[in-house]
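ok so for the tutorial part 2 we go from a plain amino acid sequence to predicted structure tokens. step 1 is just haveing the sequence, like this:
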Amino acid sequence: MSKVSVIIPVFNNPDGLSNVLESLLEQGYPKAEYEIIVADNRSTDESQAVAQEYTRNHPQLIKNVSEDKVQSSYAARNRGVQIAKGGILAFTDSDCVPVESWLAEGCKALEKNNASMVAG
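step 2 — the prediction. this is what the tokens look like for a chain of 120 residues:
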């Protein structure tokens, strides 16, 4: 089983961020085998506070970084990739709510098909 880094770019979406983080905490994938990285992209609302709260409450699982030079979800994702420790990178957005089997099924599809990428 490969370690997975889940990267979430966020800009001004505290409610969505809270929802996606809750769904990622409920994944049916072993907690020791994944990390969650919130990559804030210069939010001006409570998004950063939400990320900090989840990081404080789940320090072994959630990390928080900021991309403050380039205003772009791509730049925020890339900032998350810079600190990722997983051999597999999984991306979702702050307006998504992955189902409980998202990580497990994605990893299974990668391994079964000897694929380098899965999208859905």
